[in-house]
Amino acid sequence: MSVTTWTPDVLGDGYEQLTIPLGPDPDGEGNAEATLVRFRPDRTPAPSGKVVLYVHGFTDYFFQAHLAEHWAARGYRFYALDLRKCGRSLRAGQTPHFTTDLAFYDQELGRALEIVRDDTGSAEIVFMAHSTGGLIVPLWLDRLNAAPGGTAAAGIRGLVLNSPWFDLQGPPAIRSVGTSFIDVIGKARPTATVPGGGLDTYGVSIAAGSKGEWNYDMDWKPLAGFPIKFGWIRAVRRGHAALHRGLDIGVPSLILRSKVTRFSKKYVPEVDAADTVLDVRQIARWAGCLGDRSTIVPVEGARHDVFLSTKEPLARAFAELDSWLDWFESSSTATHSGGEHAEIRADA
What we know:
Layout: E1 7-8, E2 15-24, E3 31-39, E4 51-55, H1 65-73, E5 77-82, H2 106-120, E6 125-130, H3 133-145, H4 150-153, E7 156-162, H5 172-175, H6 177-188, H7 201-206, H8 230-245, E8 253-258, H9 280-286, E9 293-299, H10 311-330, E10 341-344
Parallel strand pairs: 4-5, 4-6, 6-7, 7-8, 8-9, 9-10
Antiparallel strand pairs: 1-2, 2-3, 3-5
InterPro entries: AB_hydrolase_fold, Hydrolase_4, MAG_DAG_Lipase
Pfam family, one: Hydrolase_4
């Protein structure tokens, strides 16, 4: 397989993108496409056979150039995938981020993996995912690992999760009675909008020009997020249930999260040092469900996207990533599963 249609990306020098046709959308919204982005800086270290592929979350797309630069400085070839109907991949007439089954994303994840392996000749790939992507990717890895040869045969060696969405935040009733309601409405009226959304607390915290310091396209990542559809949240809750039953992703993982959650209906300075989107206690509770070896690290002062934190917690997040990569690169578990083990870090 040869890929020759890379074009300049919106991130500028060193970034290129490739459109991945996916055919008819299973949810009936025309033809779906995904977009693969690669980072090729002029001074990239000589190819080392190390590759990372990043997957974003809900109301998100890849724009974190500083993250790509950090991986490149460690000798990794960096790629990022904008899933169907997300960011670069959103087409006219499509509902942003809408799907009725998280397994539909298997198509672009598998295709992106093939393209990256062909582009690099590498059999040493680490996946990295944020928030909803941090649910989508482990579910896919679990299915992939059940196939002959598992994740090892696919060349996947590790996983880094950044504040993965492992459970529905809110009161217990939302996760019990509420989930039953979501299941019924999501099946009958999948494109109906879930009421009560539209908070811009997190967006104001991170976005340059409001209170934050990060620049991005607000058509692709609006401050208050895209409307949540019942069919989509039904798919997420089914994904949560599968995770809670236990997965076997076949590779060691690093899970980074903020140390505290602070939900707020409006911006206050305290939200700059907390996760305002997810309940970090739920991330801690369910992290052991991935199977294999998991390292869970709370990062004090971090935001929901720990790599969009303010200066000091951002430095701590990168230090924790580097520490894990030092272990990962020197450990035999970088090429062979090291058995089931959970490492819980209470300090950061």
